[in-house]
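Lab notebook page, bench 4
Experiment: in silico fold of construct C2
Operator: M.H.
Input chain length: 264 residues
Purpose: comparison with the prior construct
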Amino acid sequence: MGNQSLRAGRYRHYKGKEYEVLEVARHSETEEEMVVYRTLYGEFGLWVRPLSMFLETVEINGESQPRFRYLGPMQKPPASGAAALLVLDAQVNMCDPQNPIHDADGILSRLQGLVQLARQSETLVIFVQNNGGEDDPDRPGTPGWELHPNLQPQQGDYLCQKSAASAFAGTPLHDELQRQGIQQLYIAGMQSEFCIDATTRHAVELGYTVTVIEDSHSTFDGSVYSAAEMITLQNEKFRKIAQTVRSDAVQLQNAKPVVMARPD
């Protein structure tokens, strides 16, 4: 950091949202010190603000408090070349012949190819299975909840069940990945604008190097956008915060990871 009065790390604005301070820079004309920081929500965009304003206090209910409160250093995974492939919500209900996701056969074929590639390169494969609500087609124990027959975990894979959009919310996934020294995540599966989006953003926030496989996630037609349009829109959003690559350009090279124990 160029200014010792401000530490790099995670900060919370007095209104509640959180940010990562990266550096203090100087304005090229006025030499005013400016804080360079990143939002930890939305598009994870970069912003600058005068240091003097960043360090201001505000009065809330008669009490003075910092505009931005320091929470601590960003907790990032250990530096490592190890990678994992996350396959999200590749469940039977997504490929129901009566109401399948867009390009269901193509998505399944590409996901199978990615899983095969990951296993051949000894890259950890993580299947994420969504536990839906009482009236959802992926309610636990129902046929629609099961992982697709073409995408079944094998010895050495890891199965993570979730009940929220992000695979990290309320699950041990982050702790397990840190324990394994995994820093790179390749993300594919369903649905583009929901669980793929939420998991990608959460992974970026946690400090992982994220690659979304742009032709290997899908969704359903919506009231405003077709599924194909939504996939294109999401890929444009993903490119702002992560890397994207087509499935035929994915290259995985790993040392063999430690096998994770499946949760009870």
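Observations: The radius of gyration is 21 Å. DSSP finds five helices and 13 strands in the chain.
Next step: discuss at group meeting.
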